[in-house]
Amino acid sequence: VPATMPGLWSLLLLWGLAAPCWGLLETVGTLARIDKDELSKAIQNSLVGGPILQNVLGTVTATNQGLLGSGGLLGGGGLLSHGGVFSVVEGLSGLKIEELTLPQVSLKLLPGFGVQVSLHTKVGLHSSGPLGGLLQLAAEVNVSSRVALGVSARGTPILILKRCSTLLGHISVFSGLLPAPLFGVVEQTLFKVLPGLLCPVVDSVLGVVNELLGAVLGLVPLGALGSVEFSLATLPLISNQYIELDINPIVKSVAGDVIDFPKPRSPIKVPPKDDHTSQVLVPLYLFSTVFGLLQANGALNIDITSELVPSNVPLTTTDLAALVPEALGKLPPGKLLLLSLRVTQAPTVTLQNKKAMVSIAADIHVLSYPPKGTPEALFKLNGVMTLNAHLAPSATRLHLALSLERLRVTLASSFAHTFDASRLEEWLSSVVRVAYVPKLNVDLDVGIPLPKVLNVNFANAALEIIENAVVLTVAS
Q1: In sequence order, what are the residues at sequence separation of 6 or more whose Cβ sits closer than 8 angstroms to the Cβ of residue 258?
Q2: Which parts of the sequence belong to the Lipid-binding serum glycoprotein N-terminal domain (predicted)?
Q3: Which of 5, 106, 207, 460 has its CA 20 to 30 A from that of 38?
């Protein structure tokens, strides 16, 4: 492929061997490690599910000319257009390829270059001529190709065919007669023809796989909140067992504004990857920006009234008087309450010690709430909610479900008397659990998108929470 070819960077690979050990991820990106088994599976599936073999076979048969004969390699000016065996060769006129057996794929990663792809297949041929009537042959063929891994102009990883050759194996005659002198003729003919026939199969396969690799990039919607855009942060890295992609996630609001937060001060320690597994590492940075998007959109705010809580959860001045009577002043009992919760700064997400935690600081305004009339402010609290985040992967996303662990409040201001706000924590916790946490979980239902890497399904992935990241590992 010429260096000037559009869609490719002139610099393809400067990659070294990445041994399966603990490493450091210097960027804040999402790290994807694609096992070579997944790449081999993608190549095999492209042959099974797609029309590649049928297209190639159709191209061959559509020419309406045989490999041998007047229009083939043995015809006028061809390989054996003059000679003692030409009269016999004429009996093979019209020899055609009629079948390509589904190739068996073997793959080897080449650190510092790319991939070696080998296809083992059988080619079925037939001819109907005066020599022996119907002649049917089968030839075993190994197709060997070297494929470089580079980056396209779109910034996607791309496999580029650099060299392709075929090795002809055993030739079998199933019906008809093929004199011994012609075995060599057929063998030489196939040796010249098959590279031009089968190497396009490899190129077509790579085209399908490149579409899958290209799907790692692009916009992934986050419902009404915005989107995440994935792009390659660095050149791909290739080792003996896997291809590593450092993917940069950019979180955007519905208006297209980038939601950005300070980067972690220290790099992430990436755990080793076992053979025959693929990994995706979701950094703390992505969690933080998604929660930042929720806060920027006002999705973390809520007004809680009696309509949002079950009857067993008290939300009247009578219940409040039992806890902090001095907070009511001259307000009579039996009045409904309104809790106005406002989050003015982005939540803090913590990933460590195999736990995921979310801390949300909120201003909690407590008001009396007459069915008709204007709410009357009673007092304001500064609250900090600590929530456990339960993580579960699906095929393409990492889902979060929050549960309240504790709520701490202090009195910020009061329109009556000051009081010890800690006496309200148990009551407020019950209200938050039934009215606020369910709202958060609905907003978080969109989950955190995972990059699409060769259609790897992470639904049954093993999940590990490490320092400042979550690692998903799935067997190939």
Answers
A1: 250, 251, 252
A2: 33-275
A3: 5
Q: Which two tokens stand for residue 450?
A: 């995972």
Q: Cα dihedral sign for 324, 326, 328, 334?
A: positive
DSSP 86: H
C-alpha 75/C-alpha 78 separation (Å) is 5
Q: In CATH terms, is domain 37-214 a member of 1.10.238.10?
A: no
- Rounded Cα–Cα distance for residues 385 and 383 (Å): 7
Across 113-125, b (16+ Cβ under 10 Å) vs e yields: bbbebbbbbbbbb
CA distance 192 to 104: 22
Q: Count the Cβ atoms, other than its own, within 10 Å of residue 404.
A: 18
Q: Dig out the tokens for 390 from the structure.
A: 């339960």
Interacting residues of 372 by C-beta distance below 8 A, sequence separation 6+: none
The three-state secondary structure class of 168 is strand
Cβ-Cβ contacts under 8 Å for 265 (sequence gap 6 or more): none
Distance CA 87, CA 277 (A): 59
125 is written with which tokens? 């041929």
Write out the two tokens for 315: 């939300």
| Assessment of whether the complete model's pTM goes beyond 0.85 | no
Whether 367 and 373 have beta carbons less than 8 Å apart is answered as: no
User: Which residues lie closer than 8 Å to 278 by C-beta, 6 or more apart?
Assistant: 32, 33, 34, 35, 38, 242, 453, 456, 473, 474, 476
As given in the structure block, the two tokens for residue 230 are: 């994935």
Contact 400, 464 (CB under 8 A): no
Write the CA distances from 275 to 161, 163, 278, 396, integer angstroms: 26, 28, 8, 22
Pick the CATH number of 259-475 from 3.40.50.150, 3.15.20.10, 3.40.50.880, 3.40.718.10: 3.15.20.10
Q: What is the pLDDT of residues 221-280, one digit of tens each?
A: 888 888 888 888 888 889 999 999 988 888 888 888 888 776 777 778 888 888 899 999
Residue 29 CB contacts under 8 Å (≥ 6 apart), including other chains: 233, 246, 247, 248, 249, 283
Q: What is the pLDDT of residue 22?
A: 52
For the chain, list residues with pLDDT below 70: 1-28, 49-95, 128-133, 262
List every span in the chain annotated with CATH 3.15.20.10.
259-475
Could you give the CA distance from residue 42 to residue 222 in angstroms, rounded to a whole number? 28
Residues of the chain with CATH 3.15.10.10: 37-214
Q: What percent of the residues of the chain are helix, what percent strand, and what percent coil, each to the nearest 5?
A: 25, 40, 35
